What we know:
Blueprint: E1 12-19, E2 23-30, E3 36-46, E4 49-56, E5 63-73, E6 76-86
Antiparallel strand pairs: 1-4, 2-3, 2-5, 5-6
Amino acid sequence: xxxxxxxxxxxxxxxxxxxxxxxxxxxxxxxxxxxxxxxxxxxxxxxxxxxxxxxxxxxxxxxxxxxxxxxxxxxxxxxxxxxxxxx
Length: 87
């Protein structure tokens, strides 16, 4: 998993995910206080290879958020939290 780019962003940001195999992917966005805002992806099956998931700023106010990325496949469940900054 790579960090989203650009970060910080004004219009949109992209999460690049390289999957070794078909996987169920979830991306959830949380406010700094831990309150869940919304799911960008909710257990969506994605094929192996490079995937790019975009988030548009029109869904977010300026601030710092946490993106929780969960990848599930035959090798297990992998979770990563990434700081997302919106200008």
